[in-house]
Amino acid sequence: MPAGPVPQPLIPDHAALLRLAPHLVPQARRGVVGSSRYARNLREAIREAAQDPAAGPVLISGEPGLEKDNLAALIHYGSPARKQLMLRLDGALLRPDGSDLFGSAADGHEPPLLELLGAGSLLIDKLDQAPASLLPRLRELAAHGRWWPGAATPASGEGIRTFSGRLFFTAEASVPEFDRCCRLIRVPPLRVRRQDLGEWLRYGVRQRSRKLGWPSPPQVPEAVVKRLQSYDFPNNVRELEVLIYRALQQVRRQEQDWPAVLPDDVFWTAPRQQRFRFDIWRWKPQLREWMRSPWLWNGLLFGLVSWVFVLVNLWLWQGPQDRAHNGALNLFWAWWWPLILLGFPLVGRLWCSFCPFMVWGEISQRLARRLGWQPQRWPRGDNDSWASPLLAAGFALILLWEELCNLQNTAWLSSCLLLLITAGAVIGSLRFEKRFWCRYLCPVGGMNGLFAKLAVTELRAQVGTCSGSCSTYACFKGGPADGEGLATAGCPLGTHPAHLADNRNCVLCLTCAQACPHRSVQLSLRPPAADIQREMSLPPGEPGLLLVLAGDVCLHHWQRLLGWSALAPASLVEGPWLPRLAAATLALALPSALFLLARLRFSPARLQRTLYGLLPLVWALLLARHLPLGMGEAGQLLPVSGFTAAPFWSADPHVIAFCQSLAVLLGLVWAVLLLRRQLANSRQAWFSAAALAVLVAAAGRWLVAVPIA
User: Are both 14-152+159-186 and 194-266 of the same fold?
Assistant: First the structure.
């Protein structure tokens, strides 16, 4: 098409406008966002195409969802012909004979679209999906600007017309016959331009929040950007737009409630493929209705657990102070610890859903609201960066307190520990909405979240159903009843069930299942430790918490490790305070010290994978450490509670030793298999890690051994 003066814009009549209106492209939606070299090169290619004096055809190729039609609009509206019309036709919907573009004899006196367009621009979107019979005519139009009405080529050449406008094509696959006659612009996918993702997110949030009526756009935390940079975005910009819209809809509650910072939890992407899942509720639908019933949870939490907790603490304060005469102390140390450890591989963090600490926190929050006090919204952002190390340190202090003050045999101090954690839950509930304390600061909750990754149960939502059918997101933020969905206050940990990457932030309270009107939430059985993968998103302090839990075994059996030293105290319970504290701290810190020494020799990534591969073994050693109390004293609950004539049982030391060995062997086999997954790229690394697991298992079994007469 020869260069020349810019033609004056065509002004169609009313009938022509009605025909053109469905295909008009009024403007470009946005520019090219980003500062990477890919974004700069793409902007330069668009600028050169817009200023092309020959106004030649342009073929824009790239993966789905890259808004290639918008790039064509940028070229048109940045060119001297910007005042001309621009039409967009979907190549996949074009008729094989081309009649919807070139006209046909059956149309009578109705002019073809190309004739109505005049000197404007024509965009054929999805050229690679156009009918094969139509491609030669489109190529002729692109190469020479020639076209003719009807399906057949005029034999004499009469009736052939010339298109004076400009052509644009977009394609997701290669169309070689058009490469030689068009200017090519290849659009890189988002996964190649990860550097631009932060700018894309913030631009999209500003654009979308303005359309939704937000007075000022919220901020996007840097932690969100870093997490999403590890996601490939198969549908590119289109998927990113859906993600942003979904995030804003989740946090918006009412017209006057506009958060300044978007939480990490509202940005969720399609999870990795989940294999080997068995949907319990699909198998037994009636079980779903029973488990999500509000009366069950309200009766359990507020009618039973809250008052049992009060009675237990009164018993600990007013009753005998040793475990041999106080049933509450027996219940705490001989029942609770072994049972919760046994429960982790089965139900994960279920204990947290009816934990008495947070029950009283929720009660205090409800009472405060009735009195006019309004807890603040969560301080959104990367809270794990400061809370997770603090949680690990808090658990270490609890373990030191337990051993130095003999909490296992001192009732009122055990009650002080329970009341101290409850006070944290109450203060956290008065300060912030929902269960901020549970998610970020509770030491017991941190341990539960860590070992919940081993569980065979999993509560998740179907991303496709949530993104395609839901607009209220009541499972996350709460809301009134909707269809079969019940009125709820939303997830107590502020997490959408489709966002969960592991079990750490799911307490199986089933609030999301109660609120969901689409039956998207599923309770499934899965392979054990399915959350432990080579690529995991971990809170900064969680590996430290794992080492602290391993140190608990060393601390409880410190005499076998340090008793040989002349500097070791005779007891951690009696004697000068400083030597006892030093010995306890040294025993507790032993696994952490060994880990730090290993960092000097091995890469941090490999060490972290090895550490999480040993998680089942750490769980097994903790279980073996608590089995003597559970199997030896749990059966004496009634006699130590004052019912001296009641029957009791106590396992033989040989049976306890056998169960300890069985638990450690189970943890060892599980750890070796998990290490195979974690270190799959190096057989030598797996052999070395497996040998380490055998060494740790043997040393741990020696530590927790029960003396047998």
Answer: no
What tens digit of pLDDT does each residue of 300-341 get?
Answer: 888 889 999 999 999 999 999 999 999 999 999 999 999 999
Tell the CATH topology of 194-266: Helicase, Ruva Protein; domain 3 (1.10.8)
Strand order, beta sheet including 86-90: 86-90, 121-125, 166-171, 58-61, 183-186
pLDDT of amino acid 257: 66
3-class SS of residue 537: coil
Residue type, position 657, single letter: A
Candidates 630, 625, 637, 666; CA nearest to 651 is 630
Q: Residue 15: how many CB atoms within 10 A of its CB?
A: 11
Contacts for 157 with CB less than 8 Å, ≥ 6 apart? none
- Residue 1: per-residue pLDDT: 43
Per CATH, domain 14-152+159-186 is 3.10.20.30: no
Annotated domain spans of the chain:
14-152+159-186, 194-266, 289-377+384-525, 580-703
C-alpha R_g of the chain: 34
The 10 Å Cβ neighbour count of residue 693 is: 23
Q: 158: pLDDT confidence band, cut at 50, 70 and 90?
A: low
> Where does the pLDDT of residue 202 fall: very low under 50, low under 70, confident under 90, or very high at 90 and above?
very high
Q: Is the pTM above the cut of 0.85?
A: no
Are 187 and 32 in contact, with CB atoms under 8 Å apart?
no
| Chain centroid to CA 705 | 40
* Rounded CA separation 259/253 (Å): 10
Instruction: Assess whether pLDDT exceeds 60 at residue 596.
Output: yes
Q: Could you tell me the end-to-end alpha-carbon distance of the chain, in angstroms, rounded to an integer?
A: 102
| Total number of residues shown for the chain | 709
CA distance 543 to 541: 6
Question: Which amino acid would we find at residue 531?
Answer: D
Q: Which of 466, 606, 449 is nearest to 531 (CA)?
A: 449
For β-strands 278-279 and 521-525, DSSP reports them as antiparallel
3-state helix, strand, coil in the chain (%, to 5): 55, 5, 40
Which is more confidently placed, 249 or 451?
A: 451
Which tokens sit at 649?
């049982």
What was the pLDDT predicted at 263?
A: 82
**Average model confidence (pLDDT) for the chain?**
89
Cα separation, 358 vs 530, whole angstroms: 28
The 10s digit of each residue's pLDDT in 557-578 is 999 999 898 889 999 999 999 9
